[in-house]
Amino acid sequence: MKNQVEEKFAEFFEKWVCQLDDYSQQLIRISKESSSEAEQQALVSKLTSHYKDYYTVKWALAHEDVLVFYCPVWVSTFEMAYSWVTGWKPSIIFRLVDSLRKTMVPGGGSLAELTEQQLRKIEELRLKIRLEEEKVEREMERQQVALADRKMVELARLTSRLSNGEVDGLVEVALKGLLSGLEKVMKAADCVRLKTLKGILDVLSTKQSVDFLAGTSILQIQMSIRGTKRVQAYVNTSN
Known about the structure:
By secondary structure, this protein is mostly helical. The chain is 79% helix and 0% strand. Helix 2 packs antiparallel against helix 8 and helix 6 (116-146) packs antiparallel against helix 8 (164-203). The longest helix is centred in the C-terminal third of the chain and has 40 residues, at 164-203. It is globular and about 60 Å long. It comes from Citrus sinensis.
């Protein structure tokens, strides 16, 4: 029997990526056209809301079964190879900005024209985010060590002297604490991801934000292509 949380999020994720693809096409189009700043800002706001929706749904379902997000069925093995605590690593955003800055053609206020002040602010943000990544990684390590702490070891020793019902009760209590810890770490990692996006957008102009979000969207969509195909196969088998 398929996990209901997996089914719900897999279906949501497929629709979410399709909408992301639509937004990315709009970003590319509006970047090339002589659009007003108001039009550009409206689209940037739509996309940032789209990302927030992703985490709202993720957190709600993770409260039901957080382990699903540590071993997701809706992403490809390629995406999993680059996964960091149930998602993308925040520091990759700074490499993307640097890559876009070097490859884009100067003109019209693009990312190729970042000012010294903007570059300084981005570097300050990068250092701050790196510290927060390390904090999350330390907490994740603490959760992993908790699997072998004294209480868990004692529980393993008691299993030979207790009834099945008593063992099940103790195991349930122990696992509840561990799962709560994993959920906390996941949310902390997601908050760093959101803080990174907001931090970059706060530094960039509206036109630069359009170019940046187009780049991040295209990257995520390309990485999700195989994952989306896998989702479709998964959803079809559950019907």
